[in-house]
Write a structure and sequence with these properties.
single chain; 813 residues; mainly beta; six-stranded antiparallel sheet; 60 strands
């Protein structure tokens, strides 16, 4: 496949230029390109090299060789999307890895950030086609060493119980790379009213009993119970409440009325998950007194606080209470066994569960009492059962529990018994059926020798403990507090609001911007323990300073505006020293006019208390435009005020339609010009249109690529155009890329309002083609805005920013 590109319309003689297609885009300005393929090409504008000029007077830039070297080809940076951690109902921590491509001959400063969105349709690529529906985090510095750097960002203000998609992005000033798209789901909020009620499969124990089971979860404390009724078959119930044949079923007011059984209270401390607590459990109940060979329906019911069961067995709100709720599981049907008149029962006990406990904590132990015989056990009465146990440190002392009674057990059936007990050390325990405290038998059985189950070892673990403290527990904004956590009888700890790394003890520094609570939960064989700590945040001392103009002609004044918070005194300094910016300054918000004679950095420092060291400082640099630029392009060693106009052209230049007015060049037309300087010569082009609505081809370095912001486009033009850089204050020896980034940000932010006070940057909707060209003008600097080959706006620093066009949108930087 062959592509044809137009030659850039502003180049320096002999310079190389390239066009780079990002491999993640499969449609570039309407042209379909294969995925994961990188296309690049380079071309040159031929012209004879000059010898370059020496650094000129009047603040002129350093000399150059006139050749105009081309940009170095740069491979896209490396980036990979990592895992998400610490997901709550409103926050999550995103991770990624990235850095400059290690194959690049020269490394570019690289930054990384994350894009995320609650998309209803999973995105395939991570790019700007999602427009204003996508959020981005702040940048992380990935350096320029070429080594991969892991970076994380916490995102907030998420919507609870929602799917989010995210990816990592790495970019430098020439390229951008995207990581793969991943997803996560936020937790339920703390006040979630979702209630889960699942009816389990029953265990039919005989002709008159069944073990009912279920599962539930609720946002608050709950009363959980079962309901049962005989299964109704045949025609629907009549208006009088009777079924065909007049069968109302004994014990029921109406044939389809549920009867409550097995009420259990569950506390919200039963279960802990993510950021919120909720009650949860697996309740069960042995239902007896059923008819043999009969079908029954049952279901689980959950009544959530502040609702509770009233005297009529209904889940309802008490007077003045609000919230809560009730939920029912799906009904499940079972059928009891047919009764058989057979001989003797044979009772035995199963193993003990659970087989571990926490020292000093009440633990409920359970065992099944099983009737292995052919007769009903306890018919007409109850069965007395016991638990026996001894501590391993004193095996000769067997302790017997109080008698635990169960109703009759059919042949082949069973019943579950429970025993609540605190243990202090490793113990052996067993259950015995049909035994009193004296171990005597109460029921005649076919085998009296197997009533007790096996001795089961119970491992008793020491109770875990956790402690969390904050020192200091009150800080100023911008200061730090040390969180110190420790634990006993644990194997790992996790923190909320900070990362423990799984360690059972440690210290970590935190710097919350507002009052914050932190918690630690440590887990061991004996369970979990938690502790909390709080850090209060007071107003710190802050100060900021801005200038209404970041670059000015020599002799022009600029207004400095500063604002301090929680300061008792402020003082000013300047580099180089300035008599109009020194000494004490007003606290709070104020301003002052200064007139720098050269590029000057103005600093203000504020103290929190008298005699205390400086606690806040901020600076702003004002660049003063003075002389000409280096050779090899627009400019040439020397003060532009000293050039001579001979009525036709400049003595050493022939620039079509350019005029010198005041301290600026004014471009009065379009077309191509020639230059000669230092023995060399060449040609240049600079724009083709001057009026709004006029068709024109924008310079290649002014076109907005689909992943770029306007300040990136400005920076590219400043780097590529020596005349523009010099006009804006660049001097030999400066880091050109850093200079361009700083000035471009100021231009986009303060001069042309392409970045609003909320740090939202104007960008261009994919796949529209727009350009923002910087041109020197009589008023200092002008932006020519192109859209689809037409000049749609001409703006200078005095022009009020118009409403965004339909192809422009605000993007959170």
């Amino acid at each position: 496949m062959q592509y044809t590109f137009s030659i850039p319309n502003y180049v320096a003689t002999g310079s190389d230029y390239k066009i780079m297609f990002n491999p993640t885009a499969n449609n570039i300005f309407g042209t379909t390109c294969p995925m994961s393929t990188l296309y690049s090409d380079a071309f040159s504008i031929n012209g004879s090299s000059g010898d370059g000029g020496s650094g000129g007077g009047g603040g002129g830039g350093g000399g150059g060789d006139g050749s105009g070297s081309g940009k170095t080809n740069s491979l896209p940076p490396y980036v990979s999307t990592g895992m998400v951690t610490e997901v709550t109902d409103t926050t999550a921590v995103l991770s990624g890895e990235g850095g400059p491509n290690p194959s690049n001959p020269s490394k570019l400063q690289t930054t990384g950030y994350f894009r995320y969105s609650p998309m209803t349709i999973p995105p395939i690529f991570c790019n700007d086609i999602y427009g204003p529906g996508m959020f981005s985090t702040e940048d992380a510095n990935l350096g320029k060493s070429g080594n991969a750097v892991t970076f994380k960002k916490r995102v907030t203000n998420l919507v609870a119980d929602t799917d989010y998609y995210y990816c990592a992005v790495a970019s430098d000033q020439q390229n951008i790379s995207y990581g793969q798209v991943k997803s996560f789901h936020t937790a339920l909020p703390a006040d979630s009213q979702k209630i889960t009620a699942n009816t389990g499969d029953p265990l039919v124990l005989g002709s008159d009993s069944a073990l009912l089971k279920g599962y539930f979860s609720a946002p608050n404390d709950a009363v959980v119970y079962f309901q049962y009724r005989k299964t109704i078959s045949g025609a629907p119930r009549t208006g009088g409440g009777q079924y065909p044949g007049g069968d109302t079923f004994p014990g029921f007011p109406e044939a389809n009325i549920w009867k409550n059984i097995g009420t259990q209270n569950f506390s919200a401390d039963t279960y802990y998950a993510a950021k919120y607590k909720k009650a949860s459990g697996y309740p069960s109940f042995t239902l007896t007194g059923l008819a043999g060979g009969t079908k029954y329906d049952f279901r689980i019911a959950v009544c959530v606080s502040p609702m509770t069961l009233d005297k009529n067995g209904q889940c309802s709100n008490s007077a003045g209470a609000s919230g809560g709720g009730v939920a029912y599981g799906e009904p499940v049907t079972f059928e009891t066994k047919i009764s058989e008149n057979t001989s003797l029962p044979d009772l035995s006990a199963s193993n003990i569960v659970p087989i571990s406990a926490t020292a000093g904590m009440p633990t409920t132990f359970s065992a099944a009492i099983i009737n292995k015989g052919t007769g009903v056990a306890g018919f007409g009465g109850q069965i007395g059962n016991i638990f026996q146990y001894y501590e391993d440190s004193n095996p000769d002392k067997i302790i017997v529990s109080p008698t635990i009674f169960t109703d009759k057990i059919e042949a082949g059936g069973n019943a579950t018994i429970h025993f609540l007990q605190k243990l202090s050390g490793n113990t052996h325990m067993r259950a015995c059926a049909d035994r009193g405290q004296d171990n005597s038998s109460k029921i005649t059985e076919s085998n009296e020798d197997n009533n007790c189950g096996p001795w089961t070892p119970i491992a008793v673990y020491p109770a875990p403990a956790a402690k969390l403290s904050a020192e200091p527990n009150k800080i100023d904004q911008g200061s730090s507090s040390n969180l110190d956590w420790s634990s006993e009888n644990t194997v790992s700890c996790s923190g909320y609001g900070f990362d423990t790394g799984g360690k059972v003890k440690g210290t970590i520094s935190v710097s919350p911007s507002k009052a914050a609570k932190y918690s630690v939960t440590c887990t061991g064989p004996g369970g979990s323990a938690s502790d909390i700590a709080s850090v209060g945040v007071g107003p710190g001392t802050t100060v900021s300073i801005t200038a209404d103009y970041m670059w000015i002609p020599i002799g022009k004044s600029v207004k400095l505006t500063w604002s301090s918070v929680n300061a008792v005194s402020c003082s000013a300094s300047a580099e180089p020293a300035a008599t109009d910016w020194t000494g004490e300054k007003a606290i709070g918000k104020s301003s002052a006019d200064v007139t720098p004679s050269s590029t000057t950095t103005y600093t203000i420092s504020c103290k929190k208390a008298a005699g205390a060291p400086d606690t806040a400082k901020d600076s702003v640099t004002v660049t003063v435009q003075s002389g000409g630029g280096g050779g090899g392009g627009f400019g040439g060693g020397g003060d532009w005020n000293n050039w001579t106009w001979n009525g036709k052209d400049w003595s050493s230049q022939n620039w079509k339609d350019w005029r010198w007015s005041g301290n600026n060049w004014t471009y009065g037309g379009s077309g191509t010009g020639n230059f000669t300087y230092g023995g060399g010569s060449g040609t240049y082009t600079y724009g083709t249109g001057t009026k709004i609505g006029e068709k024109a081809t924008p310079p290649w370095d002014a076109i907005v690529r689909y992943h770029e912001g306007i300040e990136t486009v400005f920076a590219r033009q400043i780097v590529n155009r020596p005349d523009l850089a010099t006009l804006l204050g660049y001097q030999s020896g400066m880091d050109l890329q850093q200079f361009a980034n700083t000035v471009a940000d100021n231009l986009a932010r303060y001069s042309f309002a392409y970045i609003n006070p909320n740090k939202l940057e104007v960008r261009v909707s994919y796949p529209d083609v727009a350009a923002y060209e910087l041109r020197p003008s009589a008023s200092g600097l002008t932006v020519y805005e192109y859209f689809k080959g037409v000049i749609v706006d001409i703006r200078n620093t005095t022009t009020t920013f118009k409403n965004k066009s339909y192809y422009e949108y605000y993007f959170q930087k």
